Amino acid sequence: MKLIFVSDLFKDHLIGGAELNDDVLIQHLSKDGFEVCKVQSNKLTEDMVVENDLFLISNFALLPERIKQMVMLKKYIIYEHDHKYVKTRDPSKFPNFLAPKQYIINRDFYANAHKVIVLSKICKEVIEKNLQIDNVISIGCSLWSEEKLDFIESLVNQKTEKIEKYCIINSDNSIKGTKEAVQYCEQKGLDYELVGPLPEKQLLEQISKFEYFVFFPHVLETLSRITVEAKMLGCKVLTRKNLLGAASEDWFNLNGLELVSKIRTQVSTALSTFTKVLSDDSDITVILNCYRRPEYLSEQIESIRNQSVKAKQIWIWVNYHDDNKDIDFAQFNVDRVIKNDYNWKFFGRFAGAMLAKTKYVAMFDDDTIPGKDWFKNCLETMSTNEGILGGAGVRLSEPKYFGHTRYGWSSRNPEPVEVDLVGHAWFYKKEWLKYMWQEEPLTWENGEDIHFSYVSQKYGNIKTWCPPHPQENFEMFSSLKGMEMGTDKKATSSSRNHGVFYAQRDACVKNAILHGWQPVYMREQNV
């Protein structure tokens, strides 16, 4: 899997905390099956964004706004090393770390990321509070290579007698607080020594000799790599805990070899988290259709939220009817409610789905309650039998709809089955919606399922499949109550509408075949 790794600078350009973190991550991902392509943020081009689908964004101060907007249309993860969501790059300048609205920047960029990964608990709390977003993960550590941790452990194991002095990093970066640390030691009459600048290993060797380490940051440090290294080396740390991300972690009370061991575990878990998030294909927007059965919405939403693979967003598309006009949709606490003053019937929700920003769209009729593994079933089917997926599959046997064979929840096929069209529950790549509008449907009154499969096959060579619905595992089913909910008098295909409904669908099938659709039976006959 190709991954475009974007940062202002890399380890080749600067040996800084962010660059060291990124280098460990790049080495891990390269070994874990990713084809990692490093690109400096000011060199990321429009063509690169268009031609690739997966991005990891590290520091991005130099990323042009135009490119940023294009990346937002792709799947991307932000690996946050500081606070690029506030103009000051430091929320500690504001009471309770809460910046006034005029200081907030890049909110949409963070909000639209698949995940935002931060280094510590306090950073997660602060970014969520400032941006009001819910896609943040804390890995609870910086990233160190095994080689670096081995080196730190070797220094600890030397058991060198420590100098009873206070070590201060000699940095000309004002936010690292060297001046304040010196003033503190002089005011307290503490014997201190400035250390550095030195190459990294030599710096660690020097720090390991001291009993104490003094660090007074001026900003909210997302973790403070050097402080954690000092603690791993057995130093007692004097610092401003409220400005230290590491201090918000449960392991901050550990020192020496015990801390080294804990950090090894944290790093291993963090790297696995990156792999999982980047490999995660559960980028799904759910669209529920509300027309005449609003009484089922709560149960539908609960079944979506209980899926073993979680959806990114849940939307409700509302076609106007007297049965739903007085419903307070706020009660459902979903991400979007698209409430229409008109009944757009079957095609409207597909138009609304064009606004989704996820890789996949899962769409449900109002009588469809899926088992908890339906999304998992769809993703697994997509990996082996890519195409438009659905819970009620139909195979035609002649150039009309009536007389077809059904697959899915009603017939319980144990394996994926290629079909001509699907309904009740769709699962498809959002990008395939463009085929829906290549031709105007024969009628807007019926046949959206026929039209979608027809034009997707004709213009995109996309097949249609019904995922497994095995008798022994109802959790994989697209619909658990189809017979119970879908056969009432509100159904479009009910007996009073039966003749018109099937006549329209027969016409849709004949029209599609006339214009190039190749149902399965026709392809089998041509073999």
Summarize the structure.
With 527 residues, the protein is α/β, with parallel strands linked by helices. The chain is 34% helix and 19% strand. It has three domains: 2-138, Rossmann fold; 146-272, Rossmann fold, CATH 3.40.50; 284-526, Alpha-Beta Complex (Spore Coat Polysaccharide Biosynthesis Protein SpsA, Chain A), CATH 3.90.550.
Could you explain the architecture of this structure?
With 527 residues, the protein is of the alpha/beta class. The chain folds into 3 domains: 2-138, 3-Layer(aba) Sandwich (Rossmann fold); 146-272, Rossmann fold; 284-526, Alpha-Beta Complex (Spore Coat Polysaccharide Biosynthesis Protein SpsA, Chain A). The chain contains 18 helices and 19 strands. It has helices at 17-31, 46-51, 65-71, 107-111, 121-131, 146-157, 178-188, 200-207, 225-232, 256-279, 297-305, 348-353, 374-384, 433-436, 448-460, 482-485, 498-514, 520-526; strands spanning 2-7, 35-40, 54-57, 75-79, 115-118, 136-138, 163-169, 192-195, 210-215, 236-239, 284-290, 313-318, 336-339, 360-364, 388-395, 405-408, 417-419, 421-429, 464-466. Strands 11, 12, 13, 14, 15, 16, 17, 18 and 19 form a 9-stranded mixed sheet that branches. A 6-stranded parallel sheet has the order 2-1-3-4-5-6, with helices on both faces. Strand 7, helix 7 and strand 8 (192-195) form a beta-alpha-beta unit. The longest helix is centred in the middle third of the chain and has 24 residues, at 256-279.
